[in-house]
Amino acid sequence: MSNGTGDLLNPPEITHCFVCGSENESGLGLHVFRDGTDAVATWTPDERFQGWADRLHGGIIGLLVDEMLVYAGAPHDLWGMTAKVRYWLRKPVPLEGVELTLRGRLVQKSDRGFRAVVSVHSGDVLVAEGEGMCVLRDDSPRPR
User: Fold this and answer.
1) Cβ pair 43, 68 in contact under 8 A
2) Cβ–Cβ under 8 Å, residues 52 and 93
3) SS3 sequence, the chain?
4) Which domain holds residue 87?
5) What CATH number is associated with residue 106?
6) Which is more confidently placed, 40 or 6?
């Protein structure tokens, strides 16, 4: 999948992540790209991810927000693990005919981690948003 933006950010060695792993047949298959200093992705839900009748399960949106928090650091050469996340569901998401656009943006960094915000849109409509903090992995470069 390509969405016409910059470089693919998915680490090639992480193949079985439930959200972004390329070899996880049960996963979401999310491909995340650089868009300037942001991380962006598109994803289309299907009936496997149903919550209420004909609606995307809110927990799946939570997974997407969590993943995009981590990827928000990637354009800055920072790789972390989610330490804290919260998200708000703004509008119900239908299961058919919808492509979601996800954007993760780094808003603060320190020598131990970073804070990011995430938006989830269906077309021009904000359907969810989130924020959180990630702790840097031991092998991640430290901010200057």
Assistant:
1) no
2) no
3) CCCCCCCECCCCCCCCCCCCCCCCCCCCCCCCEEECCEEEEEECCCHHHECCCCEECHHHHHHHHHHHHHHHCHHHCCCEEEEEEEEEECCCCECCCCCEEEEEEEEEECCCEEEEEEEEEECCEEEEEEEEEEEECCCCCCCC
4) 34-136
5) 3.10.129.10
6) 40
Entry pTM: 0.91
What is the C-alpha separation between 36 and 121, in angstroms, rounded?
18
pLDDT in tens, 31-82: 999 999 999 999 999 989 999 999 999 999 999 999 999 999 999 999 999 9
What is the number of alpha carbons within 13 Å of residue 75 lying toward its C-beta? 21
Q: Does some domain include residue 116?
A: yes
User: Left if phi > 0, otherwise alpha if psi is -120 to 50, otherwise beta: which for 138?
Assistant: alpha
Domains contained in the chain, number: 1
